[in-house]
Amino acid sequence: MNELIPVGPVSPLRQRLVDDMTMRRFSRETQRNYIRDVGRFATWLGRSPHTATAEDVRRFQIEQQEAGVPVPTMNSIVAALRFFFTHTLDRPDLARKLRTAHAKLNTTAFYTQVATRTMRAVVSPLDRLALTSPSGEAPDG
Q: Which domains does the chain have, with CATH numbers?
């Protein structure tokens, strides 16, 4: 049911990308996502992505951020383009220009992360229990 349906001739560059991902045993879903994300960049660029420059990569990321592309989506695009530039095009210079996005954490999320790190840092089961008990003290016994 989840078979890919060819919609027309595949460019040699796209086929090379698919071959590179298949060789590395990427799942079908990852391949679909990477093809979509590289295609998104090519559409924005208006020409074949193998002609991209460092300035093109920079402008693309800025415009995506200004357009309100969510952080997880942008990071997915960065992963796809990083793979494409590094492995398919052998252009690690362009891959190095890509930056992952970072979401601003609200106060609750920040303190949740701090508490999680603190809990993971505790080695002793009694200390862990003390951190989780309502009074904050180790139980008698």
A: 12-95 (1.10.150.130), 104-141 (no CATH)
